Amino acid sequence: MINILLRYTILFVLTLLALSALSFTLIYLFPAEPIINLTGITPQNSIQHDALVRQYRLDSAYLIQFWHYLEQLFSGNWGYSLISGQPLKEEVLTALPATVELSTYAMMIVILVGIPIGCYSGLRAYTNADFTINSLSVTVYSVPVFWLAVLFILTFSLQFGWLPLSGRLNLLFDIPSQTGFLFIDILLADDVDTSLAMRDAFLHLILPTLSIACISTAAIIRITRRSIIDVLNKPYITAAKARGLSNRQIFFRHVLRNALLPILPLMAMQITTLITNAMIVETLFSWPGIGNWLIQAIYQRDYSALRIGMLAVSTLVVIITISIDLFNRLIDPSREKFESVTI
């Protein structure tokens, strides 16, 4: 147990160092001089130029610059946006919860819909129901997320007018941001119709959540189906049938638990895809998340915001991926034993 935690801690630290080094290097890869990319200021004379260079340690060796960059990151001084002039730490911590919230609800749909349908498809393998589910999942998985989002907008917002077109909440509601998570902020807000605000927030959430969840749900259905079929062909399932256990008992005692274990590592990969799709969908629905924020930074050539935003999103993905893989190792000790034997 301790060895596993130690190995994952080392992996996490080394990964963050690599991401920080990449983020640091970006300032030299962007067009224009590094000092302009950092500050957004074009020095008017050599005195101003030298002062800015000394301030950001650009006159030192690269390793010293990188160490200074790490010190600034850990101290919370992430720099300032070249466009708004606001601290990047505040802007990232304001935008990131909206993306996490959107991705979390989409992942809930993926789990609650994808796994049951995948189990049903696996139990009815090679029947008409299985062929239909498999065909639909392949079709949905092949659709680009931005095209699916546009199709939802055209159909449910513009054609029928059932759901809001964009945004996170109607502008009539004045909800102060306390946690960054909208439903929690609504509950904490004073002088607001909570039920009405909740309903409006839920309606704004439906289309972007479905746009993200559909593709990952299709992937989880196929993964679950394949895992169920593999488990059903194991010798211990045949032995359970010989003992006279019912199909229900076999499924819940033996099939489901053993089929879900291989799915957990693959879900970590789907979370990465889901967050990436969320960042694309945010732009289409004007969702105030980190993806929309980064797109605006690209349009406005806010290089400081770009490198910090890239580092924040990458760190989030690494934390989620390593946490899921660690959780999978803890609940499946046989995986660690197998790896020890093979090594």
Automatic annotation (TrEMBL):
Residue span, ABC transmembrane type-1 domain: 96-328
Protein localization: Cell inner membrane; Cell membrane
Pfam families: BPD_transp_1, BPD_transp_1_N
GO molecular function terms listed in the Swiss-Prot or TrEMBL record: dipeptide transmembrane transporter activity
Transport recorded as keyword: yes
Species per Swiss-Prot/TrEMBL record: Marisediminitalea aggregata
Keyword terms: Cell inner membrane, Cell membrane, Membrane, Transmembrane, Transmembrane helix, Transport
Domain of life: Bacteria
InterPro entries referenced in this protein's UniProt entry, alphabetically: BPD_transp_1_N, MetI-like, MetI-like_sf
Protein name in the entry: Cationic peptide transport system permease protein
Membrane spanning residue stretches: 9-30, 105-126, 138-162, 201-221, 259-285, 305-327
One cellular component (GO) term of this entry: plasma membrane
